[in-house]
Automatic annotation (TrEMBL):
Keywords: Cytoplasm, Exonuclease, Hydrolase, Nuclease. Its main location: cytoplasm. It is found in: Cytoplasm. InterPro entries: Exonuc_VII_S (IPR003761), Exonuc_VII_ssu_sf (IPR037004). Heterooligomer composed of large and small subunits. Bidirectionally degrades single-stranded DNA into large acid-insoluble oligonucleotides, which are then degraded further into small acid-soluble oligonucleotides. Belongs to the XseB family. Pfam families: Exonuc_VII_S. It is an enzyme of class 3 (hydrolase). This is Exodeoxyribonuclease 7 small subunit. It catalyses: Exonucleolytic cleavage in either 5'- to 3'- or 3'- to 5'-direction to yield nucleoside 5'-phosphates. Its EC number is 3.1.11.6. NCBIfam families: PRK00977.1-3, xseB.
Length: 78
């Protein structure tokens, strides 16, 4: 498991925001910018994966006619 794969969604997003900020300032050298861009792409992919996994876990609670929970089923469209 890579270092990025160990990051939580929130930690990866914070690092991605910092990385984008560094790229936007234009103060990094070309080589630094390339490295930042590559890491940013990996962080973005990781965030997308973690978000997709979370969406797949979301469940819709089913209710009886009286409004009591009767179980759950996978949310549609995710």
């Amino acid at each position: 498991m890579s270092e990025i794969e160990k990051l939580s969604f929130e930690d990866a997003m914070r690092e991605l925001e910092t990385t984008v900020g560094k790229l936007e300032t234009g103060e990094a050298t070309l080589e630094e910018s390339i490295a930042l861009y590559e890491r940013g792409a990996k962080l973005r992919a990781h965030c997308e994966k973690r978000l997709r996994e979370a969406q797949e876990r979301v469940e819709k609670i089913t209710l009886s006619a009286s409004g009591q929970p009767t179980g759950s089923e996978p949310a549609e469209g995710l």
